Amino acid sequence: MIRQIKSGLPAAVKAENSLQVRQTVEKILGDISTRGEEAVREYSEMFDKWSPPAFRLSRGEIDDCVRSLPAQTLEDIRFAQTQIRNFALAQRAALRDVEVETLPGVVLGHKNIPVNSVGCYVPGGRYPMVASAHMSVVTAKAAGVPRIIAAAPPFGGKPHPAIVAAMHLGGADEIYSFGGVQAVAAMALGTESIAPVDMIVGPGNAYVAEAKRQLFGRVGIDLLAGPTETLIIADDSCDAEMAAVDLIGQAEHGPGSPAVLLTNSARLAQELPAAIEQLLGWLPTADVARVAWHNCGEIILCDTLEEMVQQADRIASEHVQVLTRDPDYFLQRLRNFGALFLGARTNVSFGDKVIGTNHTLPTMRASRYTGGLWVGKFIRTCTYQRVLTDEAASLVGEYCSRLCELEGFAGHKEQADLRVRRYGRKVA
Question: What would the pLDDT profile of 64-74 be if each residue is shown by its tens digit?
Fold first, then answer.
């Protein structure tokens, strides 16, 4: 039996953008499309109080940001980027070009071709998301993207040095200091000084997500990301302190971030609320995390492991942390998740910041049909065909002709018939 011990507020967990957000974004995109950089500057002044002489950082400004950071910070950035790069390169190596002779004289194949240009958006509103620079820029570089540009909003009235350093060390070719819809629009649509890109990636707030949604089709996107989500699957081997820390550690992302405990331990379900209150009593980000837990936190008590699998796949969370005696049980059975974190020695924070997997992941149950950002998102798998012999052209042409006639496509049929006439058997 499945029992809902704690529920969130249904209205608070809706992921749909409001009409006001959609209309605001539509207006900004239209304005930037018409007026270009003039409009970008106006919106930057309006939303970020930011209007530098140039939004693109010079090499000198980039070097100044890098030099301003402590050596340990630079070492930490390089360490994280090495882990992310190594895993992305391993993923890239798994993507092979293919060529196969499917019939005598018929050769089919595909090539894996990187996207030509990518715009990487790095959020910097509530928190300066340095790790998001690693996840997008480093992964695009590993994929072989020839032109990578990156943008982040100012933080504290200037470009955030660590974000700039992460973009630069990750391999960005152009770095811009502006944020929000205006940054996404400038990269996607182009301005007088910014050549447009073919793809936009990276997380952001509701306005950034809506901008990506409205721009999709004109450019590619990685995915539409809502508030950060975390699900913990735990049995009685997990203590309340660890469950509380790992839930609230993600709830601090924002007041709309769902944090769910799914357990078959009545003791853990009973002890968790007090452990969370104790943690919120001293955590510096408790003002945000408390609202998220109140509005979006859940405790679900199951009787069996099978029920826990069923509920986890229904929830289809962005992050799924397994704190049980046998995490492999869930690795082998779960189907809907953005990323899995198996066992007490790992956690979502490792994945968010440093361990090597990508932290840009599907939310709002999108893991039912897509994975997260990875090197393959920057790769186009494009097919080709080659017919080497007259016999093959005639054989395929005869089948194609009849199938085209079946569908009523006369022009298609003639393409096939011409090959049959030219390359088919000549009757004496």
Answer: 999 999 999 99
